[in-house]
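writing this on my phone so excuse typos. first protein, seq and then structure
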Amino acid sequence: MPALLRRYFPFLDWPRPNSSDLAADARAGFTLGLILVPQAVAYAMLAGMPPIAGLYAALIPPVVSVLWGSCQLLGAGPVALTSMLVAGSLAGLAAQESARWVELAIWLALMSGAIQILIGALRLGMVVNFLPGSVVGAFTQAAALLIVLSQLPAMLGLDGAAARTALAAWDARAVLAAVDWTGCAFGLGTLTFLFVLKKQSKRLPVVLAAALATGLLSWAFGYGARGGSVVGELPAGLPVLAVPSLLSWEDYRSLLPAAAVIALVSFVEALSSAKTISRSTRRRWNENQEFIGQGLAKITSGLSGAFPVSASFSRSALNLFVGARTGWSALFAFVCVLASLLFLTPAIAYLPRAFLAAVIIVPVTNLIAPRFFVRLWKASRAEAVIAISTAVATLIAAPQLQWGILAGFVMSLGYFLYQRSHPRIVEVGVHADGTLRDRARFRLPPLAPDLFAVRMDAALSFVTANPLEHFITEYCRAHPGIKRVLIYAGPINSIDVTGVDTLIYLIGTLRDQGVEVYLAGVKKQVEEVFEASGVTGLLPPEQVFRTEREAIQRLRASAV
């Protein structure tokens, strides 16, 4: 098979499945599909979309994700965090479930998908490394808390507007009057049922069982006909693939930051799932190809009239747990969603919205772990402060959640630059093991009375060159007896033009003051830059040492 064809259609490299694999994939796929249907409807409502859009997003996009991705067992589709990002990004731009809201959500899917495809095509998958785990973790926990809080009124059967008015007036009776007690019973009952059987959820379709029970009760009691909040009538049939009408330039400008955040944050969720699956199955995956697969899934979702999708950590873990072996499991899940769209939309219409709110809350509570911040505080207080600040910024910025993670990114970048601009530069002496170590830390004598030996634990670049220069020149100025300076360059992995210029300046300036510069442990890649830039010609061979042991022996022997 031509390499070019395999590159653009990676699923052509899939091995031909045998009957055992297909049986395992069928069991896993149908299990996943039965859970995906009620979750998809719930996450559509979390995103502010019509309930049917959840089924559209759960139909073709998961299959596209698997076919063009690199990890065959990812459970893609609507997810809580991405849905919350959609709702937050569009808040204030339109009314939820309106035609304008749907149009903007579709374009969010197309734009975030295009960004992911571009990243993957340019092989820039490492861009996710610029989002530190501490920031993503803090953002995820804050977003999870917001998701729970946003769904509590619906789960408790509260009329949000009436409850807020009653609370503002401190009227307890009015608050109780705003409660739909039947809806509250559906919500709390579902919540209790799912929590009690949480440990069984990987073996039994408990979400589907809860959906069947609440749906039948809602139908039997005529809950919707009596004014109860239910999903309502859904259009039957398949989504129509269509390109949406163009927006104004101002709309695109408003959506672009949110699309970029959705593209990166949703991929971090896919990244964690793919890593877990890869370690369990011992199959390699490619982050650039996965970017393309996830991007195509988002675009397919947009063309289907739905919102951005992503890989679900919980559904991916379930897919692995129930024995899926290949990407064929996604096709069996597709059959479940297809059957729901064709035959089950009248039944889904009876589902209480309180039930759907509980379906959202239960898996999201797994993301809330205060111990995350405690562990961070013990490991790095600076990162813990950034994480806490990210969580607070996310809560303050709600519903515009993208500003929370952008604040965390900026703080992390600032801390990173601060660390790089303040490299660790120390005077070294000879340790008992014969190596050069920090004099102050190990209380070591100087290498020689007239020698200042220094080590910098960083690359010699435009960021670190000035601190090194100041450290050496200030010490020599304060200690007139110094006649030799040894720069132990073992930790220096790279050097740029500013680093070269600084080193040339140091050699010349110190030599004018009667101080000679020595180098030791220069790495090959740095040595090549020295040769090309003329640094090597400024120092006699006897002032350059291959190893620190050679430097110690020679400089001690020639001590004044």
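second protein below, same order as before
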Amino acid sequence: MLTDHVTNHPLDLTAPPQSSTQARPQQDSRSTAGRPPSSKVPVRSDPGTILLHWTLVTAIFVSLLTGLRLSADAEGAWFSKLFEPILPQGEIWTWHYVSAVFVLALIFAYAAYMSLARLKRRISSKKIVVLTLPASNKLRIAAVSVIAYWILFASVIALSATGVLLYMGYGGIWVTVHFTAAVVVLTYIGTHVVLHYCYGGLEQLLRLFRPQSLRRYPGMARRPLAIAVALGAVIVAAAVTLDFGTRSDLVVARADELPTLDGNLDDALWQAAKPVFVKTQQGSNLDGAGVSTVEIRAVQVGDKIAFGFRWEDPTRSLKRHPLIKTEDGWRMLNNRADISDETAYYEDKFSVAFSTSDVFGGGGATHMGPKPLDNKPAAFHGRGLHYTTDGSLVDVWQWKAARGGMLGKVDDMWFGTPVEPTEAQVAGKARYSAGYTSDDGKAFYIYNYIGDPETHYHGTVGVRRLPIDYKKTAALMGNIDLSVNTSEDQGAHWWMLEEESVPYSLDKDAEIPVGTVLPGVLIQGEYSGNRADLQGGSKWQDGYWTLEVIRDMDTGYEKDLAMKDGLFMWMSVFDHNQTRHTRHSRPVRLTFNKTGN
């Protein structure tokens, strides 16, 4: 990208007009010696420039395209979606992170090469002075190119610095800065090509396909390209070593008694367990910043393991698709329930994923894009699917506040090889989740609404059950405030038990006045099978959720991972949204074999 506009040209300032009395200079006979006057020697570049240029171009394009795919996933994204037809799909996290490291290494390698080969004049700020002088158009274009180069340098540095911050879990304003720097780099690519074409036409662009030996200058290193490549390799190795060498270990403490599952971490065993803090970011809501720090503790008690989680969430949200009676009938409150992408009327959730692999994207199980699987249905929301491609398993625990989370249940699930879709899923009438599904068994929650396939939850809906006493049900729900940014009361029940309700009937419906709000979740029966392996206790207080979870060290079930040394963990926070959880890039390693607490 840093090709040379001017090689050995002097400062070609525009000369003043000559008077008619001045003698014209005689033509230099040497200018025509050896070849016809009209012939031109093709413009060329040295092999080092060509190699580093195209390697850097490739790395930048991979980084930009994968980054735009991640950006297109953001709620309200529009600019990055303009590139949808050319954006990659699938497991792009690895490509994005690896290409970003190579961009950084290549920038340093390129800078070193220009210095060692005495080619720094290509980006010398002294060229900019010609913009204040009556210089030729070529020199002006070269000066503008130098300015563009330095803007590129600043943007790449900003991209790298903010990329590291995002990778470490710092979101908020850094997401905006990172995106802005990426747009600047994207704009530079087009500007760069145009400037080169204006400077020397097609020949100037083709020089990067025509190698010639590097000219020797006094003080030039003997092998500048080899040294520059070696420097780039050192930077890549240092980045990888620093990343893997600074990841957090969650050391599992030992205790004699299990904790009381009350959503408090004040038991003595929790105080003996050293916590790990993980920053997560780019989630929906969370006061608009999209960030939440998660505290994690772990304790082994015999053949059981207990985890304590505490995370930031400004509101206690339990309103998962509540129902409200209108003059037209019952309506289910939502903003995007039809595409499984609710970000308003939903419950708080928390998820932890375990994997034997530390591959990016949650153990390689996160695949982005409208249709990452060519031979399978797309997700309704078009954001991607969870599955693995190598036969591996990711064990997923998901706490759902209104669907049993406040009643001591944590759903046991997994990511694995994509399952075959049903006829309804192929027809687009049912949600396809690829490799994301629950353990064998049964949960005790169902939904209290029946959607109309034509209105897709944006019109009236059917109701499965009505309260025996709607006033009592309303009292259990506490202060009914339909603002999505309001916390529900402590002890409020935004679910309805089977014994508190009866099957829907017109007569019972007629007893309930317009404006009545009912829970969208029904609790009936019991959890059963391997899906019931997890027991929990949770509580929200002062802007934090606390969750305690107990499970057998090894359940013996094929879809559960045994708790052992070296497992990797990823955390996700959902603030009243369905799928737009926070992102956690660097896994935490579960460790049993270290001495300590």
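The chain has eleven helices and 27 strands. thats all i got for now
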